[in-house]
Specification:
- The protein is mainly beta.
- The chain has 2 domains: 83 residues, Arc Repressor Mutant, subunit A, CATH 1.10.10; 208 residues, Jelly Rolls.
- It is 13% helix and 40% strand.
- The protein has 4 helices and 17 strands.
- Strands 6, 7, 8, 9, 10, 11, 12, 13, 14, 15, 16 and 17 form a 12-stranded antiparallel sheet that branches.
- Strand 13 and strand 14 form a beta hairpin.
- The radius of gyration is 21 Å and the shape is globular.
- The two termini are 42 Å apart.
């Protein structure tokens, strides 16, 4: 199962409404242990089949459960094992910020192995599973890239001036694993580097296609990568954090910020315990309509 990430906007309102009901909360608790058909679940909650199905449809519309065939019956299955809520960011409001959005096709270095490929708004870019096309000029139009082994590296301008003091660095992106077609349970250790310094490794739980990505173009087949998980890497003077949780001891002092650019690398290390590839979703793909986003907070 995967996690469901919400924000404070109308886009997440159907999930909040789905959870704001004691019957549906009880159904979630029951389905966390068993897949059940409508009749069996109705008996467990003490409601008619019709009313039970209405509640299940609300949960399905919110992407909390899904329906699947089991023999001749249609059963309900829980899709998520955690739900997180991201509040509007209000970090160090006294600091100024330089912000750069980097399209996922604008990498400046790479070394990848199949399965790999690039997808644009209307079609694949070049031939799938052929690393040669990672240097195709049309790569600049890519909204999603994927590779099983290796790395891609980006550069963002370092706008810090002589008298600017870097207080915090934020890197936001939507990532998933990479499996031929897809596999919702396919862990992969994705390692982050900034300015050639290894920041840390996050294990992606899978390569998701259980439901279509909110922004993924209609031409993309249902059975391939649809969406990832938004990750926010934050580096401060006292260490790094991933999604607000302590990550590693790497701090701003470990980074060389004197160069004209910031280098950002996403890698599957040769000795990774879970070598399950990497998919990077950009604007117009996945569940977050964003490119790779770098913020430099300074005073």
């Amino acid at each position: 199962m995967a996690g469901l990430q919400l924000d404070i906007s109308e886009n997440s309102l159907n999930v909040y409404k789905a959870l704001a009901n004691p019957v549906r909360l009880k159904m979630i608790q029951i389905l966390s242990h068993d897949k059940l058909n409508v009749k069996d679940l109705a008996n467990r909650v003490g409601l008619s089949n019709t009313i039970t199905l209405r509640h299940l449809q609300i949960l399905a519309d919110a992407d909390i459960i899904t329906f699947e065939k089991q023999g001749h019956s249609k059963v309900s299955r829980l899709k998520v094992d955690n739900i997180s809520v991201r509040f509007p960011e209000r970090i160090y409001p006294s600091f100024d910020v330089y912000e750069t959005d980097i399209p996922v096709g604008h990498y400046t270095a790479y070394s990848v192995e199949p399965s790999c490929g690039l997808a644009g708004k209307t079609a694949y870019i070049g031939k799938v599973d052929n690393p040669t096309y990672f240097m195709d000029p049309q790569r600049m139009e890519a909204g999603m890239i994927w590779y099983s082994k290796g790395f891609v590296e980006y550069q963002a301008p370092n706008y810090l001036q002589k008298n600017d003091h870097l207080e915090m660095l934020d890197l936001s992106m939507e990532l998933g694993s990479e499996f031929p077609f897809s596999n919702n349970v396919w862990p992969s250790d994705i390692t982050f580097y900034i300015n050639d310094v290894e920041i840390g490794t996050w294990t992606s739980p899978g390569d998701f296609s259980d439901t279509r990505g909110k922004y993924t173009p209609a031409w993309v087949p249902d059975n391939v990568n649809q969406y990832g998980i938004q990750k926010i890497l934050r580096i401060t003077d006292h260490g790094s954090y991933l999604d607000g949780q302590p990550f590693t001891n790497v701090s701003l002092g470990d980074l060389d910020t004197s160069k004209t650019t910031f280098k950002i690398r996403f890698a599957i290390k040769p000795d990774a315990e879970n070598s399950g590839g990497c998919t990077i979703f950009g604007k117009g793909f996945g569940n977050y309509d964003q490119d790779i986003n770098l913020k430099l907070f300074y005073s």
